[in-house]
Amino acid sequence: MTLFDMPLADLRGFMPPRAEPERFDEFWQQTLEQARAHPLDPELTPQSGPLDLVDVAEVRFSGYDGHRIGGWFIKPRHSAGPLPCVVRYLGYSMGRGHAHEWLAYPAAGFATLVMDTRGQGGGSGAPGYTPDPEGSRSTEVPGFLTRGLSAPEDYYYRRVYVDAVRAVEAAAVLPGVDATRIVIAGGSQGGGIGLAVAGLAPEMVIGALLDVPSLAYIRRGTEISNVGSRMEIVEYLRTHRRDVEEVFGVLGYFDGMHFAARATAPAWFSVALMDQICPPSTVFAAYNHYAGPKEIRVWPYNGHEGGGGEQEAENLAVARRLAFGDPAAP
């Protein structure tokens, strides 16, 4: 790996113009209104197992178009009073996997809701259990980034972003959760999803932990790096040569820069300067447009793994400061 993007000093001031669709707010307002017309109807199915210090349940709730979205809900077993909750979004191709893989935040005193990303995790080491019932009315490259790309109403991430907002709404009404102390967290695709939630429902969260987020300044990402899931878009445009502007017009409804400009909750970003999957300039584009209080952690010699366990430790400390006023947090 090498440094391939802009120098750090330039990245810190990099704030490209936002080519935002005119109907952006109207589109998302109508989309969420349609979703909320379906009862949220969260349900918990307790799970047995060897984890003596936490309670584990499968959670299901209604996401986009009433589709039932699954996940884990984990909380400390002997907790007193309503707990803060961390809603976690997953990286590309991942499913929610196994409950014992998500114990860091429960061990720090949080309830945790881990949301399956619809359709993903089918062939990964972290299996998912939530299908995507919506078909595509257009051609696509295998994967998810070109699914339904012919129109914003059909695009795959419209459904995912709605699911993610509804996950926060579900967490807020689950037993033992303090609805006034919800934090969202995710890395890569999960960071991009979290950024969308921060812009779509800023009043519902007290903080956002966004590690090496994808789905921001999408067009630039396709132009400066030839690795990662964005290559699905490149492959699509390689054959749909006449559709370039139309495609990026659709993707404009899902670009993290536009959600960042509407987000007001405190946010903690991380970026890795050798990350070719989520290039640094795309992360800084979202960070610099972020409207709320913000900080960014830079990992100079890392790729898409970013800060790894060290970043997770910092995120835990930040979450505790937000939720508990922990003076030991940075």
UniProtKB/TrEMBL annotation:
InterPro entries found in the cross-reference section: AB_hydrolase_fold, AXE1_dom, CE7
Ranges for region Disordered: 121-140
Binding locations of substrate: Y92
Pfam families in the cross-refs: AXE1
Positions of the catalytic residues: S188, D275, H304
Molecular function as annotated in GO: carboxylic ester hydrolase activity
Gene Ontology annotations of biological process type: polysaccharide metabolic process
Acetyl xylan esterase domain sequence ranges: 1-316
Listed name of the protein: Acetylxylan esterase
